[in-house]
Design brief:
99 residues; mainly alpha
Length: 99
């Protein structure tokens, strides 16, 4: 029985799916913890929680970027420019704590 080989495109698609899945799990856990801990009286305004929020925002960005890049790349130069502007705004907002 021959071993099934994967193409480069299939490997890339599997990697994107894995990144999106990990991002979903990480974001769900961090959002849940961020919303649950204040209800039980834990202060979530410290540095640790700020770093966790930043990790959540960056993880969400990575999960979104893979799919959005594939779309923008197929649509042309204008969409690629819009993509990079949106990524820059999101990263700046995440670092400054706007989201």
């Amino acid at each position: 029985m021959a071993k099934k080989q994967r193409t480069e495109g299939q490997a890339r698609a599997d990697f994107i799916k894995l990144c999106c899945f990990i991002t979903l799990i990480l974001a769900a856990v961090l959002i849940f913890v961020d919303k649950l801990l204040p209800l039980v009286g834990v202060d979530v305004s410290g540095t640790l929680f700020s770093v966790l929020r930043l990790i959540r925002d960056i993880a969400l960005l990575l999960g979104i970027v893979f799919g959005a890049w594939g779309f923008a790349r197929r649509c042309g130069k204008v969409w690629i420019i819009i993509f990079w502007i949106a990524v820059a705004i999101y990263v700046a907002g995440a670092i400054m704590g706007l989201f």
